[in-house]
Each structure stands twice: as structure tokens, then as C-alpha cells.
């Protein structure tokens, strides 16, 4: 005797149909809500799949499109550009500014309006270099200081909710 594996829905169909039944008995069974044929069982199985399937997600744009439309690419050559950044740390005479680049810009604290510049303040900076990297005294490879070089121009008035 050959045994085969059937799905639970098909197994109930196979067990419910026998040769000894008459068509009138099958009609009574379908009226009671049971499955009478393979086609009906298949349709019921498909309806379960549709109900349990996850909703289709919208296609995300490809990486190339995201990069092309990013603020970083639209900026162009960032050297000598005036940008707005947010001060996130003040330590002695240094101001750490997040302007949206790979590394934060570190600027000297001004002597006049030093009290006005606190963490959370938006400031204008002139970006001189995106990354300070050089071959330092006797080194064979370039070494990065993990910071950007910028000059502080002043407080950016009216810049409250800028998305960095």
C-alpha cells in the first residue's frame, strides 16, 4: 500500500469521500458546510493563503536614487561653503558642531559672544575641509583626526527646526 503525505485540508477531503456514498449524500454534506470536491478544497486553501499573507509593501527606491537625491550630493563641493550646524558640545575654547557631515566640525570659541553659544544653538560655519587627514611626522600612512575643519561665523538667527 502506498502512503502519501497530504495537507490537512486535502486529507479531510480524501477521508470524507468514499466510494460507498451516493451523490445525494454528498449534496447533503456540502449543505452542512463540508468540502465536497478537490476544487472546493483548493479554493478554500487559496482563500486561507490570501487572508494570512502579509500586505504588499511599497517598493523602496534604489540606493542610487536615494544617493542622487540626498542633501550630501546636492551640496556639491563642500569646501568654502557656508553651512548651518547645531552645537552639541562646548569644551573650554572649542565648539563641536554637527553640520551633517561624516565628522563634526570643531571651531574656536569666540571671545565676544562666548556666553550665547551653548549646546543646542544653531550656528553658521564656513567649512574649510570635510576631514582633517594628513601624513604626520614620520608616518607612512595618512592619519585622520576624525574631525572637520571649519570657521565659526556666528549664530544662525531664525534657524530653529533645521533637519541635519
UniProtKB/TrEMBL annotation:
Keywords: Ribonucleoprotein, Ribosomal protein
Pfam families in alphabetical order: MRP-S35 (PF10246)
GO cellular component term, pick one: mitochondrial small ribosomal subunit
Source species, domain of life: Eukaryota
InterPro entries per UniProt: Ribosomal_bS1m
Protein name: 28S ribosomal protein S28, mitochondrial
Organism annotation: Galendromus occidentalis (western predatory mite)
UniProt lineage: Eukaryota, Metazoa, Ecdysozoa, Arthropoda, Chelicerata
Gene name per UniProt: LOC100901179
